[in-house]
What we know:
Blueprint: H1 3-13, H2 15-25, H3 31-38, H4 42-54, E1 58-63, E2 71-76, H5 78-114, H6 120-134
Antiparallel strand pairs: 1-2
Amino acid sequence: MDDDAxxxxxxxxSESRQRILALLDKGVDHPEDLARKLKLRRQGVDKxxxxxxxxxxxxxxxxxxxxxxxxxxxxxxxRGRDLLGRMDALVREFHESMRADCQRSLGMLEDKLAAGELxxxxxxxxxxxxxxxxxxxxxxxxxxx
Length: 145
């Protein structure tokens, strides 16, 4: 993977940026509102928004108000929405593939047990090893795990 791809993934992998993107997707558009909802300092949110803007994940515009300075608001860009959707689909596909690999491995292990190629202790040890390897992809598993 090239350095640009890694850098792009690091930008969207940030938990605070993910939370900002999720709120922008729900229509929260002003940095002050984002900061309040996320319980973060405005300065930190501004820094994250600039990073997202520079990478093309969000667009910004000025909204004129009746009095005072224009209000700067942000929204997910089409490019950002498209990339995030593709990344989400790719991760889902990867997880499904890993779950299928787990089921295949467990099936082959059960076949060996049924054929008498493994005793119960060996079967249980190997099953535990398989479940440990695939634990994050099994139903009910935490994505942080």
